[in-house]
Design brief:
This protein is 36% helix and 21% strand. By secondary structure, the protein is an alpha+beta fold. It has one domain: Glutaredoxin (3-Layer(aba) Sandwich), CATH 3.40.30. The strands form 2 sheets. The protein has an 8-stranded mixed β-sheet with strand order 1-10-9-4-5-6-2-3, sandwiched between helices. Strands 7-8 form a two-stranded antiparallel ribbon. The chain is globular and about 50 Å long. The chain starts with a helix and ends with a helix. GO terms for molecular function: metal ion binding.
Length: 199
Amino acid sequence: MHNRYSGLAARIVLPILMAVGLGACGGSGYQTKGIEGLLPDLTFRLTSETGETITAADMEGAPTVVFFGFTHCPDVCPTAMARITAATKAAGEGLDTELQVLFVSVDPGRDTPQRLSDYTAFFSDRVTGATAPVERVRELTKRYRATFGYDKPNEYGDYNVSHSSAMYVFDADGDARALFRPSDSVTAMAADLRRIARS
């Protein structure tokens, strides 16, 4: 499984690391997009990559980044995971051992716990995969104004999933603090992770 993603690493991770020095600007004192008071707190009940139930209570005590994606995603998802991993390392201050990243699959039909475990392990031990029946996932995405939809399967039964590409950042208390978009630099993300961790 890891070999399958190694080619993606060569094409995605290196350019991201080279771009760490680039900056970005956001509102509310954030270098990305501040969303304090704009979105509800972190609440969910999912099945984790270990097959056990995971809830927001399990994430309390440290900042959490939530991303909605799927393991068959060819570019957006691996890029997002590589970017948040790079930003966490760039942030320093022990965030590489404290920050939690929740990869919520919007493709539960294909993303089994084992597949999620193999996928997230490729990026970082701080990333945890989780999913739930489609309707529960849809309720969760609506809570945070995210979307997803399934394309028509091809003759082999394969299909793509369109989905939101932003990452949602919550503080240690589960309050929504920032939104990381694909246009935000790793440096800006790292700066805001430090800010949120200190608050």
